[in-house]
Write a structure and sequence with these properties.
about 425 residues; 19 helices; 2 domains; globular; mainly alpha; Growth Hormone, Chain: A
Length: about 425
């Protein structure tokens, strides 16, 4: 008998203990797909309520971060900052998150902490309140650091919860989680343009209402997470899942993925931190208009994130990684030489394509190192934040020295690093349509 069956179906059959439709024992069929009992607890009903909750909180978290970058033109004027000082603000909150996230992820792998999600949002709340009242540059840096700590606590555990709630649809779950973050990043410039800028820096305090909402929602997610841990502890311990590759090939593959993250987030830093300055300098647009163009780019990035995960579940994550990094190259090369209209069009296309990469990269890395979801999530979120922070600082210095337009001409070549995807091994079977 010939049937088109995939690994997802094999897991469900394994979990239910039904007879294999082929000759031989059903366990042999499941082993053909690399399925063991350790997979069955993941392949249950998808908890969409939990996924939407952490996606909402990801929106609130990243909205606060992007609001900070969207306010850079105002802060530059009010505090008489240069591009290097602007870059240092980004470096502080991004590097704080970068250094702490792997530590938080490794700790929670060993000792899951359900209510740490709400605690992370508390740090964000304090950072926002300090940001609203900051009167000196050093206070701005301190507030940025607290925002970074909040993100460092939130992201690894939220990524773990997304995997636990996925019901085996890991790409979809990560995309739903990531799209919240990108939607928040897109909302920040709008919030800055139409609420913060007209009312002044002190109005940032009103944004703390969103952080308080996030604390309440994440506390409820923590209750679900705690109950899930208790239920899992009552079951028989699952078999240990072996890594799909040798330690050497795993290390090489992780190195390639990190290089791709460098390419993506260094280029993203040029747009998220300096796109408004580029538009103001080259096309003489106003601050509010420049933030609207930034919103278009970040909105496109949110849509692209939602697409990447489910497509990776269907056709394989390596193909999504390949297309999302290298596929940006033709557009990034043309961007510095076109007019305002085509600049907007190019950045929307770049946002759609480039943002689809992260969910696929993260799930691919989690499958390379099974059982270390927190550590891998913390490493990749942390490295992404670190590259964004370092990129903003380096590019700010370059902009001071050679001009903002030169920055975009140099960064145009970064997506060529996507060629390294060719060296990633195939660790999953393609699923039939």
């Amino acid at each position: 008998m010939s049937l088109k069956l995939d690994r997802f179906t094999a897991v469900r059959v394994f979990a239910a203990g039904r007879e294999c439709p082929f000759s031989g024992d059903w366990r042999d069929w499941c082993l053909h797909w690399g399925v063991t009992a350790s997979h069955t607890s993941e392949y249950t009903k998808t908890a969409f309520g939990v996924l939407f909750s952490i996606s909402l909180c990801h929106l609130l978290n990243d909205m606060n971060q992007s609001m900070i970058t969207a306010l850079y033109p105002v802060l530059k004027s009010n505090f008489h900052l240069d591009f290097s000082q602007i870059g240092l603000i980004t470096l502080v909150y991004q590097s704080t998150a970068s250094l702490l996230q792997p530590v938080v992820g490794t700790f929670t792998d060993r000792r899951p902490t359900p209510y740490s999600l709400a605690m992370g949002m508390c740090f964000m709340l304090v950072g926002l309140l300090l940001w609203s009242s900051a009167g000196t540059y050093s206070m701005l840096l301190t507030a940025a650091g607290l925002v970074g700590v909040g993100s460092a606590v939130f992201h690894p555990e939220a990524a773990r919860v997304a995997r636990l709630a996925s019901g085996g649809r890991h790409g979809l779950a990560q995309s739903l989680f990531q799209v919240g973050g990108n939607a928040g990043s897109a909302s920040g410039p709008l919030l800055a343009a139409f609420f913060i800028v007209p009312r002044g820096q002190g109005s940032i305090a009103w944004i703390s209402i969103g952080a308080i909402t996030g604390i309440i929602v994440l506390w409820r997610v923590g209750v679900w997470y705690k109950d899930h841990l208790a239920e899992s502890a009552s079951r028989k311990a699952p078999a240990v899942v072996e890594a799909p590759l040798s330690p050497r090939r795993t290390a090489i593959s992780i190195g390639i993925l990190i290089a791709l993250i460098f390419s993506k987030y260094f280029y993203m830093a040029s747009l998220s931190s300096y796109y408004t300055f580029y538009l103001i300098s080259r096309f003489n647009v106003g601050v509010t208009e420049s933030q609207m163009y930034l919103f278009l780019f970040l909105g496109a990035a949110a849509v692209g994130t939602l697409i990447g995960g489910p497509v990776g579940d269907r056709i394989g994550r390596k193909y999504v990684i390949w297309g999302s990094i290298l596929g940006v190259l033709p557009f990034s090369l043309v961007l510095p030489y076109v007019g305002l209209f085509w600049t907007a069009v190019m950045t929307v296309i770049i946002g759609l394509i480039l943002s689809s990469a992260f969910s696929a990269i993260l799930v691919y890395a989690q499958e390379l190192v099974p059982g270390r979801v927190g550590m891998i999530s913390g490493l990749f979120f942390g490295f992404a934040f670190g590259m964004a922070g370092i990129g903003a600082a380096v590019l700010g210095k370059l902009a001071d020295h050679s001009g903002i337009v030169f920055v975009y001409r140099v960064c145009a070549f970064l997506p060529a690093i996507g060629l390294l995807t060719a060296f990633l091994p195939d660790i999953e079977k393609r699923r039939p349509a």
